[in-house]
UniProtKB/TrEMBL annotation:
GO terms for molecular function: acetate-CoA ligase activity. Residues 497-575 form the AMP-binding enzyme C-terminal domain. Residues 64-447 form the AMP-dependent synthetase/ligase domain. It holds the Pfam family AMP-binding. SUPFAM superfamilies: Acetyl-CoA synthetase-like (SSF56801). It comes from Microbacterium rhizosphaerae. This is acetate--CoA ligase. Keywords: Acetylation, ATP-binding, Ligase, Nucleotide-binding. The keyword Acetylation applies.
Length: 600
């Protein structure tokens, strides 16, 4: 199947003159760096441990704490009232040592999983990095998840320790504790000396912790991070990442985010998702830069205030947030002194060309889109500080990354001949975006699901599940998802999880869930419901079902819209045809999946 989408001409290329940039970019000559880059050289920029061992926390914290950056702010937490709590690299080393020591005292072994269910608070960073120091595995959960997604992930990941707040524990976990057989310890960060039954006081444990001693020396292939992500069918998938991934965090921080030693960096991603770990914690700390953390939710005035008052130089954010700022108007940005800002990047969902160009109006800087996913562990395709921007394009592959477009047949399957995937060589032909395996932050498995992992690799390539095209000059353009997964406000949502929850309601016979376009969130979740005999469609039932889903799944995952239908479209074998639901919703001809795929 060949779907050709000509490059948009409405948006002129934004040209850059490196001589006029605020600092000399780390990547000035893309072609040269791409041709000469070697992962082994990047690895040599890291400190490492004796005998070729490694620990992400050593690269991110301890080596700076022992060097000339010890007194520099590693993290700056902006509280609700605007006041700031700064934590230096030396203090962060001490806090994380203490948490590692707490884990040892609790009998947590290497490789065991420590989960967090927290907002952007200091305890999150202590937990993540202290866990890595001890050689245990860190797994963040999204605090807007309801009890079902939280407990399902704790169960699938065999979480032994959970660090959370009193309120999140009581609302999401306490009632389900009985089913969480592996969960031995729950630590409440706001216990204030009076933890709930069967929980411990995080702050008290940290205060009493003895010195940890030597950081765990890990093999580069040892598991460090577990990130749950959603597929079209089945349960959430736990993507396994290793300590050696830090080489990719370092390289992408250098080239895609253009981090320099004196930067003040702000990543707005929620810590419950992979960006919040790879680029909210690890990459900036590895580069020894100061990271700003906003403890509150997004609000335009607050965000502009933070950019100005914290003198943020590099800002990594997301299309939904940028669209919200754009709605508030560029004048709001211009009322603040944003002169420190020199580089703006975005990730997680398609970035409209309008927003890229709006950056020029609001900040005097374009927005640099980049692309990656939970499985890749780090940025794979990016627009670079010194490189011209083609608005709407995700950019070009990172040095060290081989990307390609794999041809798809009529059924949407990758074309493989003689064991090798057929690569699209013509420009602007849509196929599946693929990456050559072997980069350090590539996921090493889906937890306990070897077959699902193996299916991601076809004919020598890792298939990303995204449809894309490459133009004649090597720039990549996102076209759409190759599957039914929904991206709402940057969060990946598996339709199956939502359908399964709705099916638990007594009135629901069948449920089909899709993403429908939304101006700000990109997509929102919509459910189509077939009722059981004896139930009547009504506004009250619609509200009840949405409320039912919210309670179990949380507001970020539950459907925002819900429609009753007489019958859901199905295949002969009884599988719900979500694509048809989507085509109908968008008013497209029913068999026309190519238009569907091209539609963003
Ligand atoms: P996640 O694994 O939750 O980080 O989601 C990864 C998915 O988000 C990708 O497979 C894409 O579908 C989407 N995505 C990430 N970055 C971009 C981007 N720059 N443009 C379009 N889609 C993106």
């Amino acid at each position: 199947m060949k779907v050709t989408t000509p490059a948009p001409t409405r948006w002129p290329v934004i040209t850059k003159d490196p001589a006029h940039l605020a600092v000399i970019p780390n990547l000035v000559d893309y072609d040269r760096t791409y041709a000469t880059f070697r992962w082994a050289d990047e690895q040599r920029t890291l400190a490492g441990l004796a005998d070729g061992r490694v620990n992400i926390a050593h690269e991110a914290v301890d080596r700076h704490a022992r060097g000339d950056r010890a007194g520099r702010d590693a993290l700056r937490f902006v509280r609700a009232d605007g006041s700031v709590r700064a934590v230096s690299f030396a203090q962060l080393a001490d806090e994380t040592d203490r948490f590692a020591s707490v884990l040892r005292r609790l009998g947590v072994q290497r490789g065991e999983r420590v989960f967090s269910l927290l907002g952007r608070a200091p305890a999150l960073y202590t937990t993540a990095l202290g866990t890595l120091k001890h050689g245990a595995v860190f797994c963040p959960l999204f605090s807007a998840f309801g009890p079902e997604p939280v407990c399902q992930r704790l169960e699938l990941g065999s979480g032994s320790v959970l660090v959370t707040t009193r309120s999140l524990y009581l609302k999401r976990v306490a009632d389900e504790r009985g089913r969480l057989h592996a969960l031995r310890h729950v630590l409440l960060v706001d216990a204030d000396g009076a933890p709930e039954p069967d929980t411990l006081d995080f702050a008290a444990l940290i205060a009493e912790a003895p010195p940890y001693g030597r950081i765990a020396a890990m093999d580069a292939e040892d598991m460090a991070l577990l990130h749950f992500t959603s597929g079209t069918t089945g349960r959430p998938k736990g993507a396994v990442h290793v300590h050696g991934a830090v080489t990719a965090h370092s390289a992408t921080g250098r080239y895609a985010l253009d981090l320099h030693p004196d930067d003040i960096y702000w990543c707005t991603a929620d810590p419950g998702w992979v960006t919040g770990t790879s680029y909210g914690i690890i990459a900036p700390l590895v580069h020894g830069v100061t990271t700003v953390v906003d403890e509150e939710e997004m609000e335009p005035e607050r965000w502009y205030g933070i950019l100005a008052e914290q003198h943020v130089t590099v800002w990594y954010t997301a299309p939904t947030a940028l669209r919200m700022l754009m709605k508030a108007g560029a004048d709001r940005a211009r009322e603040h002194d944003l002169s420190s800002l020199r580089f703006v990047a975005s990730v997680g969902e398609p970035l409209n060309p309008e927003v890229v160009v709006w950056g020029l109006e609001a900040f005097g800087l374009p927005v640099h889109d980049n692309w990656w996913q939970t499985e890749t562990g780090g940025i794979m395709i990016s627009n670079y500080a010194a490189m011209d921007i083609r608005p709407g394009s995700m950019g070009r592959p990172l040095p060290g990354i081989q990307a390609a477009i794999v041809a798809r047949d009529q059924t949407g399957s990758p074309v493989v001949r003689g064991g090798a995937a057929e690569l699209v060589t013509d420009p602007d032909v849509v196929g599946e975006l693929a990456l050559e395996p072997g980069w350090p932050s590539m996921f090493r498995g889906y937890l306990d699901e070897d077959e699902r992992y193996r299916r991601c690799f076809v004919g020598g390539w890792y298939l990303t599940g995204d449809l894309a095209r490459r133009d004649a000059d090597g720039w990549y353009w996102f076209v759409g998802r190759g599957d039914d997964v929904i991206k709402s406000a940057g969060h990946l949502i598996g339709p199956f999880e939502v359908e399964s929850c709705l099916l638990e309601h007594e009135a629901v016979a069948e449920a089909g869930v899709i993403g429908v376009p939304d101006d700000v969130a990109g997509e929102v979740v919509k459910a189509f419901i077939e009722l059981k005999p004896g139930y009547e469609a009504s506004d009250a039932l619609q509200r009840e079902l949405i409320g039912f889903a919210r309670k179990r799944l949380g507001t970020a995952v539950a459907p925002r819209r819900l429609e009753f239908v007489a019958a859901l479209p199905k295949t002969r074998s009884g599988k719900i045809l979500r694509r048809l639901l989507k085509a109908r919703e968008l008013g497209l001809p029913e068999g026309d999946t190519s238009t569907l795929e091209a539609g963003r």
